[in-house]
Amino acid sequence: MARKKKATKKVVKKKKTVKKAIKKTVKKKKNVSKKVVKKTTKKTSNNIKKPISSITKSLKNDSIVQQQFVKNGQLALQTVRGMRDVLPGDQAYWQQIRKIFEKRSIEYGFSRIDTPIIELESLFAKAIGEDTDIINSELYTFNAKSGDKVALRPELTASVVRAYIQHGMTILPKPIKLFSMGPVYRYDKPGEGRYREFHQAEFNIFGEDDAILDAQVMQIAYRVLRSLGIKNIQFRVNSIGTAESRKEYLKLLTAYFRSKKSKLPSKYRDMINTNPMRIFDAKDDKCMQVCAGAPQAIDHLDKESREHFKNLLEYLDELDLSYIIDSRLVRGLDYYTRTVFEISVADEQGLRHSLGGGGRFDELVELFGGEPTPAIGFAFGIDRLIMEMKRVKAKKYKESQPRVFLAQLGDLAKKKSLQLFADIEQSGILVAESFGRGALKAQLRYASKLGVDLTLIVGQQEALDDTVIVKNMITGTQETITKDKAVAFVKKNLKETAKLVKRK
Fold first, then answer.
1. d(CA 64, CA 60)
2. How do the domains of the chain map onto residue ranges?
3. Do 406 and 431 touch, CB atoms closer than 8 A?
4. Distance CA 164, CA 378 (A)
5. Residues 393-420, mean pLDDT to the nearest whole number
6. Is the separation of the CB atoms in 224 and 414 below 8 Å?
7. Which of 448, 373, 445, 450 is nearest to 172 (CA)?
8. Whole-number mean pLDDT of the chain?
9. How confident is the model at residue 495 (pLDDT cuts 50, 70, 90)?
10. Which positions ≥6 away from 51 have C-beta within 8 Å?
């Protein structure tokens, strides 16, 4: 009996010891858990602090606030460097630009052409030149599943010329005028107004070598800018002759740069033997000093190129376009011949900013395997145009405003309103609605905010009776009409019928 009691005491004692051990373990786990939570919370809050501080930083180049989000402790949901979103606040500028370009292209007899964003890499290498920055370091290239080496287009001209040949436009009556607009890509260093995805609009004329066409494309460029509200426009013009006439000039230029090689930065020394004219594009101070004493292409033109340039200047004088002759302007792309030009504007400090440029590419069609075809064209950087429009506070595109609002109350009224909305819209009247809002007061407030002249109200009773209440938002009067007479009544009562929007 005594043994049993001892054994029972031992078991109870053991149980108590186990319970204590369990309590200690639980307490320990709780402490560890608290530490982990505390540590994790601290770590997470540190991670959150980083993006929150950067949320307030707005990009100077496009005034868009980049928001950064934390996902699994890592930053996510950001645009790739050099890319950006065009948000609703900027769409009015884009709409205005599209409207003006479409209008001017039609006025001057241009037809729209759109080419793929992706082309064979060899197309651009052949057109732009192997020894250019675009091909050597800025081209986005990758291998397609077919094994073809393809590239995102860095400009529009090469693709347009390829399409011109591929689709047999060479046999069409000349001149052939083509207008194109879209995104292009270059792996360049992003900066103010400079993105890796940017947009261009381009005008090209094929089949005429008369200098009057050169003057005409410059006139189009001028008219486009003036239509966008941009002033202080100036053209820089030059002639670089033909590929044949440049041979002797290039020998002189190569010899000159070799004599000044030690004064040139190392990155430009390789260009002396490959493409010496590209050195003129350098913005480096040392390069510009060396270039100041270099032989000029304009002094070594063949007879035809000299006459062509003389005629161009006479046409520009006749058009009264502001221009200066810049003998060191070469435009940096291998396909240019004879006329090259850039378009710039001056800011308040007198500094000039380039908005676009162009020139002749008389030998490019033949280089691609087509018949010899003279051609001239130019392109604008749309992103830069928008920057300039903002700077000068130019007019933005203004959407046509609705003059009628359709309000409804109740499920049956909502169903009936759909057909009424369609009837009014099809009659050519721009009408607004708010089908998602239930309260009539909220809908009427919205109608008032839009500044409409008339509000049509369909409630439960009106839905049953096939009637509509028409409220004049200007006078405050209202009357009830049958649904089948609503469109005619609205047309009769709108004061300014000229603002009715006709939809195709």
1. 8
2. 2-76, 88-233+329-391, 404-499
3. yes
4. 16
5. 81
6. no
7. 373
8. 80
9. low
10. 67, 68, 69, 70, 75
Burial class for 158, CB neighbours closer than 10 Å (0-12, 13-18, 19+): buried
Closest-CA residue to 111 (of 41, 179, 209): 179
> Cα separation of 94 and 100, whole Å?
10
CA distance 409 to 435: 9
User: Is residue 184 scored above 90 in pLDDT?
Assistant: yes
pLDDT (average), residues 23-30 = 45
How far apart are the C-alpha atoms of 259 and 91, rounded to whole Å? 52
User: Tokens in use for 414?
Assistant: 């909502």
Sign of CA dihedral 469, 472, 473, 476: negative
Strand 404-408 vs strand 431-433: parallel, antiparallel, or unpaired?
parallel
- Among all chains, which residue has been given the structure tokens 């410059």? 218
CB-based contact 66:54 (threshold 8 Å): yes
Mean pLDDT of 426-444: 80
Select the highest-mean-pLDDT range: 74-83, 104-113, 123-132, 467-476: 104-113
As given in the structure block, the two tokens for residue 80 are 């790739």
Report the residue count for the chain: 504
Average pLDDT over residues 217-240: 92
251-255, 306-310, 407-411: lowest mean pLDDT where? 407-411
**Contact yes or no for 454/492 (Cβ under 8 A):** no
CA-based diameter of the chain, in Å? 133
Please tell me the distance from the alpha carbon of residue 498 to that of residue 353, in angstroms, as a whole number: 40
Class of domain 88-233+329-391: alpha beta
Residue with tokens 């709108």: 494
* Residue pair 237/357 in contact by the 8 Å Cβ criterion: no
Q: Are 229 and 394 in contact (CB under 8 A)?
A: yes
DSSP 305-321: HHHHHHHHHHHHHHHT-
Checking if the pLDDT of 292 tops 70, the result is yes
Phi/psi of residue 474, nearest 5 degrees: -90, -50
Q: Which of 29-43, 103-117, 287-301 tops mean pLDDT?
A: 103-117
* C-alpha span between 148 and 118 (Å, rounded): 11
CATH superfamily of 404-499: Anticodon-binding domain (3.40.50.800)
What is the pLDDT averaged over residues 57-72?
Answer: 43
How far is Cα of residue 13 from the mean position of the Cα atoms in its chain? Answer: 81
- What's the CA gap between 281 and 275, in Å, rounded? 11
Task: Look at the alpha carbons of 213, 214, 215, 221 in this order and tell me if their dihedral is positive or negative.
Answer: positive
In this prediction, residue 452 carries a pLDDT of 85
| pLDDT of 35 strictly over 80 | no
183, 199 in Cβ contact below 8 A?
Answer: yes
